[in-house]
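Input.
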Amino acid sequence: MIQPDKLDKLIIASRDSQLALWQSRYVKELLEQTHPGLICEIITMKTQGDKILDRPLNQIGGKALFMKELEVAMTKGRADIAVHSLKDVPYELPEGFALGAFCQRENPQDAFVSNAFASIDDLPRGAIVGTSSLRRKAQLLAYRSDLNVRDLRGNVQTRLKKLDDGLYDAIILAAAGLIRLELTARIKSLIDVNISLPAVGQGIVVVEYLAQNPQIKALLNAIDNEDARVCALAERSFNEALQGGCHVPIAAFCEKDANSLQLTAMVASSDGKQLMREVLIGSNAIDLGKALAQKMIEKGAKAILQQ
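Output.
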């Protein structure tokens, strides 16, 4: 049983999409299994990022729009924690909030989804490809400049329906989301990280909480995955040093072995005509991220992003 001085109930704030609910239920199960006697309840809400679907995220305020309503619920005492896809969490959190648990990473790759073609290489010239990500768009165009890459917003099911309705020849989604929703059959192929480097934090579910609450921090510490946390810190440190976000094509992916961390990063112009990719190995996650960012800045990364 949990200790008497610890909380015996947590309210989890979640977006109301199927994927967000899967993630929140996953965290609920982890917490209840790790802390016998703890009861977790999920409340759902629709964020501004879910409501505004006719414009790209970089035009309406960025990925923080997926978090604001959940953070308000915590501030007003309606929820204790919020669950997010880490790739949707900006490197700078609002004052008073913190990330308390990084859950084990699912496959971080991008997935190629199509009803007619097996891979990016099989697409004909001028094929229409849908993605909501400037990062994906830039890397796709760098690899296949002949493609017609168009914006695609909405939850996983909405995007798949638009593909099925014939609006796109293919769409690119995070493999992790499709795997978690048991839609692996929709994946025609996984895109090699050498073609499309994953987003910062892609595949990691993270839990946000009010930083001044030590009881909640203690509960979350018990479900934290060390490998996921370390890799996330390296990727987010790089992103912060470059001041990246959904407004610029930027990617970072960290791999951990017993002795070291390998961080691979990419910055590009939105049309993919300029693309810089670098790799660095180190042992301290935050220092590694900063060092790789500085290395790329010295080689002209800022000039590419400013375009």
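Residues 62 and 307 are 18 Å apart (CA to CA).
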